[in-house]
Amino acid sequence: MFKTFSLKAKLSNAFKMADVSHTVQHKDSVRKRYPAILNAKENDEYILYAFMIPPGMNPKDFSKKEYIFTQIFGSSYELKGDGLKYSLKIHKKKLEKELKYKFEEIEAIIKQEGFHMPIVAGMDPSGEMRVYDATNNPNLLIFGEPGSGKSSILHVILTTLIQFFSPKEFNLYLADFKQNELCVYEGVEHVKNVSYLVDSFAPVLKLLKNELTIRGELLKNNRVRHINKLPKDKKPPYIVLCIDEFVMIKNDDIMADLLQIASLGRAYGIYLILSMQRPSHKILSTDVRGVLSVRMGFRTVDLRNAMIGETPGSEKINEPGKYLLNLDALTPIKAPYLNEDDVEKILDVFRCPNPPEVANPPLKAPEDDESYEDVLGGLDE
């Protein structure tokens, strides 16, 4: 009994410290109502709480106070809820210092779960390797300071897709505005284009917008809502558009094209991955945040950046490769580590036998008298 009381008191104090409350008028006085703790129990592996936020409290206001759980309990926790009732699981086992990338283990999970567009996340506090399906959760934002592990998880995600799918099943379009992160993917069979300048990236978006039209007609003619429902002989390849240093895009027309692709792409099998160092309201506008389903928040410079990225607590992370995954709930994750040499070795297997002198030159948008197949075919020569 005393143990339960002690556990509840710790969570109750956390709510008061962060002022997780709803203010109500009662006659001539004003009262604060805090979450009601319904249950608390502990075993050798975790502490589990069940609580309910006060009626009338906006769940978004509660989410803004989630940082208090990291400050009081550490980052190894899982929070799940429906906007009224929540469960908070605090894991006692710490995440591993380094987690080696093992494609065979990840491949087995993908096949077992039957994922269509698998995105590798990493190890959660319970020791489970987390992989999710972008079919249901499209468009990913990855952010974090240099040295936080952001680049490693990006390579893990991309190399896993390249190893899992054939070039006929999956195509990759890359934008590397830092000009030193994604150049290693040049010449890989799955990779249709690598852009290094914003201006040369604009025609790629025009091409993908045209692809939206083509796939939309395909779905309509076959009376299905997603390319996964198409007959195998008519199904086009999945497409991932990955942009490193998204902050470099300042052209309104380019941004509008990108948002259209991100908004409509899910049903057409076109998915977006954005990577950046520091989230800001100027870059992550309401429209951009509206098309993002998943966030991976590595170490950020402060709470403000963590809140903008919607991973409160990531400013407290002090280990490379550790981050907070915002996918339905906020979960601490250890990303698999993949160094540059290993990335090269993996990709060498999939490089074109006779790549052109300039691998994947910038595309030009189709002219009125130039078909989509002509432009795309030029990439495959």
Give an overview of the whole structure.
The protein is an alpha/beta fold and 381 residues long. The protein folds into 2 domains: 8-91, Hypothetical Protein Ta0175, Chain: A, domain 2 (Alpha-Beta Complex), CATH 3.90.1070; 103-349, Rossmann fold, CATH 3.40.50. The protein has 11 helices and 18 strands. The strands form 5 sheets. Strands 12-11-13-14-10-15-16-17 form an 8-stranded mixed beta sheet, sandwiched between helices. Strands 3-4-6-5 form a 4-stranded antiparallel beta sheet, with helices on one face. Strand 3 (36-42) and strand 4 form a beta hairpin. The longest helix has 25 residues, at 198-222. The radius of gyration is 23 Å and the shape is globular. The model is unreliable at 356-381 (pLDDT under 50).
List the helices and strands and how they pair.
Blueprint: H1 2-17, E1 22-26, E2 29-33, E3 36-42, E4 46-52, H2 59-64, H3 67-73, E5 77-81, E6 85-91, E7 99-100, H4 103-113, E8 118-123, E9 129-133, E10 140-143, H5 150-164, E11 170-176, E12 191-195, H6 198-222, E13 238-244, H7 252-268, E14 270-276, H8 286-291, E15 294-297, H9 303-308, E16 322-327, E17 329-334, E18 336-337, H10 340-348, H11 372-380
Parallel strand pairs: 7-18, 10-14, 10-15, 11-12, 11-13, 13-14
Antiparallel strand pairs: 1-2, 3-4, 4-6, 5-6, 8-9, 15-16, 16-17
Helix pairs in contact: 6-7
